[in-house]
Amino acid sequence: MVVPSHVAFQTWEARGESLDSVEKRIHDGVPLAHLHRRANEYLDTLEILFPESKPKPGGQILEIGSGVGYVMEAAARRYAPRRIVGLDVASGMIEKARERFARDGVDTGIMEFVHYDGVDVPLPSDSFDYIYSVASLQHAPRPFCFRVLSEALRLVKSSGAVSIHLLAYSHFENYMTPDQFALEIDQQVRGRAGHWHHYYSVQEIDKVLRYGLGVEQPHVLEQAGSLFFSFGKTRRNVPAGFGTHTQQQTKTPQALRKALSLPKRERNLPAETSNWTKAGRRVQQLWTRGLRLPQI
After folding, report:
1. How far is CA 14 from CA 19, 94, 227, in A?
2. 216-to-24, 27, 62, 222 alpha-carbon distances in Å
3. Which of 261, 206, 195, 252 minimizes the C-alpha distance to 228?
4. What is the three-class DSSP state of 62?
5. Does domain 7-288 have CATH number 1.10.10.10?
6. pLDDT, tens digit (0-9, with 9 covering 90-100), for 175-190
7. Nearest residue to 20 via CA among 61, 80, 68, 54
């Protein structure tokens, strides 16, 4: 039996909790009827920002932090892989994913799950064409997040790609309060199980990838309170209009955040967003439409 290596992972075991309760707890208040749409919107975002990373049919895909499997299900349908693996630190969450698949009549012929301790992934190197993670790694303590990025680099094929989503400090600015921050830090320093939250900057992830992992040319972008980044073992060209961090990237999300803080009917996107690339505008529209982030 694999034992989770950190108290932060225990809350995801969901022992004695119903599937209905788990779905309400882990999906940031998104109505259950919208979870399939939300899963597809995450994949849309990764494709728009990193079109060169989109997997070809017939490949092998790994999701890090697969939860109850909505994004995994969407990826299996969209990309038609030969095999898709859900990697999770919580065996209880894997059980809940299987329960949901049975409830919803999901064809699981190409799907499998792997439980691991949050440190060493028990899978062979160079075995996946595409590895992704959304709305998951922000709950892992920083060293574990960086460790799984290292493991992803080991697991991806030389022709493949890794695409990751994390919470950005712009999300912290919008939603954190002193009272919430005190509670967040208290649960972490006292080692209490719960939904831990960690925030990252473009500069930090860029430096970790370049100098910590030796990635030659990572693509790191900030959009509406989130960081999205993509990397691989081989050097890839940066899409037109994107770098790792530029004045355009650090300036535009700030204005976009102000728009997103308003009720939907009052959201007028600022004029400075007009110089975004086509991809940037498409993601802007997608996230303005309501792809929800954790409200802490």
Report:
1. 9, 10, 27
2. 40, 34, 22, 19
3. 206
4. strand
5. no
6. 899 999 999 999 999 9
7. 68
